[in-house]
């Protein structure tokens, strides 16, 4: 893949996170009124998303080491799109929480995949430069998400705001399917063995950054 396409993929994959959170925030009061749910319960839809997002990355990493980045990205973006549609059509807050959990887990696949791509293709120094370019794209999405979410909620309703996430996820899915080439140099057949996964998780837990 060319450098330009890598930057595009990094921006899209990292951008799913601010869209799923910042675009969603202006819709919270409308969701509370429409679903006749307590604000605390509606706020739990965001907490559930972020918790699933964090935990899922611990699993997606070994899965992508075993089967490759491309299958994980395709599965993750497909699940993200489906969960976005489910969220937009949710009939009650309980359904919305479930779909947001699925969306958070799928979001973990996209963000983990972006970081793995950089690790696969570049040295640490060059990888930092590429990641900074991808984060610039993320910054654009983050800046647009709040105002866009507010405008959509005000003029078209909260379901339209959540529907935009489905459009974004579908766009990312199509681009990955058509243009993404596997970046993992060699698959690790041991990656999903419990002992290997525990070893990796322990190394993460011991890392000063964590």
UniProtKB/TrEMBL annotation:
One of its GO terms (cellular component) is plasma membrane. SUPFAM superfamilies: MFS general substrate transporter (SSF103473). Residues 3-210 form the Major facilitator superfamily (MFS) profile domain. It is a multi-pass membrane protein. One of its GO terms (biological process) is xenobiotic detoxification by transmembrane export across the plasma membrane. It comes from the Bacteria. It is found in: Membrane. Gene3D superfamilies: Multidrug resistance protein D. The keyword Zinc does not apply. One of its GO terms (molecular function) is transmembrane transporter activity. This is Bicyclomycin resistance protein.
């Amino acid at each position: 893949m060319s450098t330009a396409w890598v930057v595009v993929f990094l921006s899209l994959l990292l951008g799913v996170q601010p869209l799923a959170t910042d675009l969603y925030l202006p819709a919270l009061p409308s969701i509370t009124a429409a679903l006749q749910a307590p604000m605390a319960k509606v706020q739990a839809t965001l907490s559930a998303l972020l918790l699933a997002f964090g935990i899922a990355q611990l699993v997606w990493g070994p899965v992508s080491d075993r089967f490759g980045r491309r299958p994980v990205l395709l599965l993750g973006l497909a699940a993200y799109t489906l969960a976005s549609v489910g969220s937009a059509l949710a009939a009650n807050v309980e359904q919305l929480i479930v779909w947001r959990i699925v969306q958070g887990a799928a979001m973990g696949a996209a963000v983990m995949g972006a970081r793995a791509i950089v690790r696969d293709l570049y040295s640490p120094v060059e990888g930092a430069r590429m990641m900074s370019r991808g984060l610039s794209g993320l910054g654009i999405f983050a800046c647009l998400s709040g105002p866009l979410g507010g405008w959509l909620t005000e003029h078209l309703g909260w379901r339209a705001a959540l529907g935009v996430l489905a459009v974004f996820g579908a766009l990312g899915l199509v681009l990955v399917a058509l243009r993404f080439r596997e970046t993992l140099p060699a698959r690790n057949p041991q990656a999903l063995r419990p002992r290997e996964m525990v070893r990796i998780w322990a190394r993460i837990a011991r890392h000063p950054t964590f």
